[in-house]
User: Fold these one by one.
Assistant:
Number 1:
Amino acid sequence: MTNKKRPRVYITRKLPEAVEARMGELFDVELNADDRPRTSAELAAAMRQADVLVPTVGDRIDATLIEQAGPDLKLIACFSNGTDQIDVEAATRRGITVTNTPNVLTEDTADMTMALVLAVPRRLAEGARLLTDTPGDWAGWSPTWMLGRRIWGKKIGIIGMGRIGTAVARRAKAFGLSIHYHNRKRVNPATEQELEATWWDSLDQMLARVDIVSVNCPSTPATFHLLSARRLALLQPTSYIVNTARGDIIDEAALIQFIREGKIAGAGLDVFESAPAINPKLVKLAADGKVVLLPHMGSATIEGRVEMGDKVVINIRTFFDGHRPPNRVLP
Ligand code: DGY
C-alpha cells in the first residue's frame, strides 16, 4: 500500500485466526473476539469512525446506516459472496465502494447443494437421526424399511446458472441427473454441451417438468419470492426443492403449506426467510422427515473461509493502493 496511514478496519464478526492475523499485520483492525452479532447502533458507531467496514452475511447495512457513515468510510469489503445485505446503491451514492468474495465459495456451496439433493429424497437425516435418537427402533434390514426416492435418471432444474449453479450441474450430471436450467441468459454453447443441459426461458415451464429444483440465484428485488405460491403449484407432488442461496427467494410459508398438503414431496434448506430464526412449522416437517434443515453451512469450510479472508485483504489493499479492487460490486 502506498498510503502511509494504516486504514482503520472494523470487522463485524470473528474471522479465522490466520485471516485476523494477516489483517492485523496490514491494517489497524478492530476485531470481534466474542463473535457477538453487532447491533445497528454498534455498526453505526463503527461506520462513523472506520475507513473500512468488513461486514458478513447477517449484518444489514441499509441506506439509513450508510447515510450516518463518517466521511472516512470509503470501503465496505464484505466477507461474503452475496451482497443482498448491503444497500449497494446507497453506498455508491455516498461514494463508498463495495466489494465481495466471489469464486472461492463456489465448489463448497455446490457440494452442500448436492448433499441436500441426495439427503432429502434418500432420507439421510431421518435415518441418521433414528440410529442416534431411538436406536431400539431398528430391527435390522428389511425390504420395506426407509425407502426413499431414486436420484439417478431424474431431472434437476437449476434456477440461476452462474458459477455455483454450473458447479451444481456438473455434480448432478455425475449422479445421473439430467440438467435443466433457467437463467436470464443461456450459458455458452460449450458448457451447455458438456452438461447436456436444457435451457428454459420460461421458469414456469421448467418447474412443471423437473423432479428436483435447486435454487442458486442471488437474492435481489427481482428474485424475491421467485418461487411464489403460484409457481410452487406448478411442481409435481413427487418433486423436491433445495435452496442454498437465500431464504427470501422462496415464499417459505407457501412452501411449508405445499409440503404439509403433500403437493411437494420435500425440501432441503440451508437458508431461511427469517434466519437465524426458523419457522417452527419447518422444524416439525424436519421431525416428520419431510425436510432437511441446515444452519447456512453451504460455504462453511476452513479452506473457503481463509480464501474469503484473502480476498477481503486483496480488495482492501488494492483500494488503498489507489486501484479498482478486483471484486467491486456495482449497484
Ligand atoms: C455468502 O458468502 O454469500 C454465502 O451465502 C455464505 O455461505
Number 2:
Amino acid sequence: MNSNTAKAPVPVAAHGGRNLVACEGALRGRRADERRTEGMGRRMRLLLVEDEAKMRGVLRRGLEGAGYTVDEAADGHGGLSLALDGGYDAIVLDIMLPDVDGFDVCRRLRQAEVWAPILMLTALDAVEDRISGLDAGADDYVVKPFALGELLSRLRALIRRGRPPRPAILTCGSLKLDPATRVVSWDGEPIELSRREFALLEFLLHHRNEVVQRNRILRHVWGDRTDEQTSNIVDAFIKNLRHKVDRRFDHPLIETVRGVGFRLRCPAEE
Ligand code: CA
C-alpha cells in the first residue's frame, strides 16, 4: 500500500514540459467569497482537470479567488489518480482531454465509487455530449465560453447538494435503469426508450423524490435553450415517459408539481 499520503503538495503529471503543483496558491490572501466556503467549517477542495494551460490558469485563479483550494491536472490520467485518492468537494472536468477523455474519467470515478460532484466543461454545445456526460455520471455542465460567475454558481449548487452515493443501477421500486448498459426495465421486462427519454428518466431517478424544475431538466437534457418551445418539449417527453413507464405502476410515478416542475415519486424508499 502506498503510505505516502501526507498532506504535502502533490506534483501532478507533467504536461507541456512543466510540472504543475497541486495546492499551489492555497494560502493566498482571503477574499470576499472565501467566507462562503469557510462558513461551512473548512475550505472546500476542488480538482480541476483541463489540458489547455491558459484556460486552466484562468480557472484556477478564479476558483482560488472564490476561496477554494484547487488541485489541478492537465490530462485524464493525472486527474484520475488525484480524484481516486478522494477528498474533493467537487471536480471540474474538461471533456476534451489528450489521453483519457472526460467521459471516461467520470465513468471510472463513479465505478470506483467516487461520488464527488462533477461539473463538466464542454466546448461543444451538443446534446450528445450532455447525454454522454450524464450517462457517465456527471452532475452538471458549463459550455465554453462561459462566465466565471456562472461556473461558480453551478459549483456552489453542486457542493450544497453534497455527494450521496449513487448506485451504478438506479432504481425506483421495480423500475431499474442501468446507465452503463443503457437498459431500462420494469420487473425484469425491458422498456424501450429513446435517447432523450432515457436521459430524462435518468435525471429524474438521480433526483427521485425531489421536485425538479423544468429549467433544470431542460439544461441537463436539452442544453441551455429555455424558450417556450423547449419548455413544451419537457412536457412532451414527460408525457412519453408516463406512457411507457408510469402506466406499469399502480400509482402515478411522475408527479406534476404545478408551476414548478416534476417529481419522481418512489414511495418504498421514502
Ligand atoms: Ca480540452
